[in-house]
Amino acid sequence: MIMEKIELKNVDKTIYREVLDNGLEIIIIPNNEFSKKKNYYFNYGTYYGALNNEFVPKGESKMTRFPNGIAHFLEHKMFESKDGNKPFDFYAKTGSYVNAFTSYKSTCYIVTGNKKMKENLEYLLTFVNSPYFTDENVAKEQGIISEEAAMNDDNPDYLAYKTINKNLYKLSPYNTPILGTVSTIKKITKEDLYACYNTFYRPSNMFLVVGGAVSPDEVLKITTDTLARFNLEKDKDIKIKHYKEPVKVVKDYEEIKREVQVEKLAMGFKMEKAKFPIKNKVILDLYLNMIVSLCFGSSSEFREMIRKRHLVSRSGYYFQDVDNIITFMVEADVLNYPVYIKELENYLANLSIEEKDLERMKKVWISSEVIKTDYADNLVDNVVDELVNYQKVIDNYVGLIKNMNITTMREVISSLDFSNKAIVRVVGEK
To answer: What is the mean pLDDT of residues 118-130?
Structure first.
C-alpha cells in the first residue's frame, strides 16, 4: 500500500496518511532519520465528545437524547475488560504510559513509551475495540464519577467555569460540564453506553495519529492486521442534532457565596461568528489567538498593569468557538473587583495592535512551530487538534502565520463586540 506523503512546509517534516477500507484515517509522523530519540506516541480517538448527546443511534431511525456526561463515562468504561485485565496494568509492565481524555468534541486514548511499540499499539487498538459493559460495572462507575462531579462542585474555579457556561449558552451542550451532573450520571445504563459506542466508535468516525521512532509501513501493517480481527466495515454518516445558539446570554450576572480566600471571576462575551470578516475557521482562529497573545499574554501592557496594581493574582483569556458563536472568555482570581472590571472593559473598548508587534509575534510563533517538530507528542497533539477542529491536517501553518497582516487584524478587532456579556463571581461568605 502506497501511503500519501504530506510535506509540512517551512518546517522540513514529512508525514504519512492512509485511510483504510473501513474508513479509519491514520496519520504517521516518524522522527527524522538523524534523530536519536527512541520514544513514540499514539493517539487513537473518536470524533465523539460531550457535545454529542442527541443523535440517531446506529441501526435506528429516531433522534434520541442521551444523558449529559455519557461520552466521559464511556471513556472510563473502555478500561474494563471481560477477562478482568486492565490496560493500566498491561502498560505498566511494558514501562509505558496510557491515559484517556474526553473533550466537548472528541475522546482520545493515548499511549507513550520507548520499547515494545508493536505490542503496545496492538493492545491499544484491541482494548478500544473491545467494549465490555455490565449493569454491575456501570453502577460501580456511577458512584465513582458522581463523587468526582460532587467534588468538582466544591472547587470554586470549576464552579465558576461551570456556571459561566450555563449562563452563556441556552441550547449548546457547552452549557453542561463534560462530566455531566450527579443526576445525569445516575441515568446512564449499559444499553446507553453500547448505543453510543456502536454509533461513534466506528473506524469511519475515528483516527489514529502516531509519532516518534516508528516506521510508517510497520505502523500501517500492525494497524491493518489488528483491526482485521474485528471485521469492521465502513459506515454511513452519523446524524447528530445541531443547535443554532441564540446570541443573547442566558443570565448576565450571578454571585455565588463560598468559603474562598480570593474571589473567583468568570466572564464571557458572546458574539455572532457571521459578523467576522474571515470565513476560513483556521485563519480566523489564528487572528483571534494572536489577539490573545499580544493583548493579554504574559508580556502585554495589560498584564503588566493589573499585576503592578495588584488587581488580580491570576488571570486567563481565550476565545471559545461554539457553532455559530464566538465567545471571549476571562477567568481570574480577583483582588479588586470594581477596579479590575473597569480597567478590563476600558481596555476591551480600545483594543489595538501595532504592526511592529504583530510582526514580532509572528516570528515568535514561527520559531515555536519549528521547535515543535523535535517532539513527537507535540506534533501528534497538533495534528489531533487540527483533525478535531478542522477535519484536516494543516500542511502550511507557518505560511498562514507569515500571511497575517495588520489590515486584516484591524478588521477582526473592529468586529469584536464586547457588549453582550455574562459575569459569575464566587465570593467569600462574609
So the answer is: 97
CA distance 173 to 416: 24
pLDDT in tens, 285-319: 999 999 999 999 998 999 999 999 999 999 999 99
Q: Where in the chain is the domain with CATH 3.30.830.10?
A: 4-228, 253-428
Closest CA to 129 of 17, 228, 13, 19: 228
Give tens-digit pLDDT for 349-364. Answer: 999 999 999 999 999 9
DSSP state of 173: G
pLDDT band for 150, please (50, 70, 90 cuts): confident
DSSP calls for 217-236: HHHHHHHHHHHHTTT-----
Main-chain dihedrals φ then ψ at residue 57, nearest 5 degrees = -65, 150
- Which phi and psi (to 5°) does residue 158 adopt? -65, -40
What is the assigned CATH class of domain 253-428? alpha beta
Question: Which residue in the block uniquely carries the three cell numbers 498593569?
Answer: 305
Secondary structure of the chain: what % helix, strand, coil (to 5)? 40, 20, 35
Which pairing describes strands 107-113 and 97-102: parallel, antiparallel, or unpaired? antiparallel
Radius of gyration, CA atoms only, the chain = 23
Task: Identify the active-site residue in 75, 80, 141, 263.
Answer: 75
Pairing of strands 263-272, 325-334: antiparallel
What residue has cell string 466506528?
A: 202
Active-site residue flag, 301: no
CA atoms of 170 and 63, how far apart (whole Å): 20
Q: Which CATH superfamily is domain 4-228 in?
A: Metalloenzyme, LuxS/M16 peptidase-like (3.30.830.10)
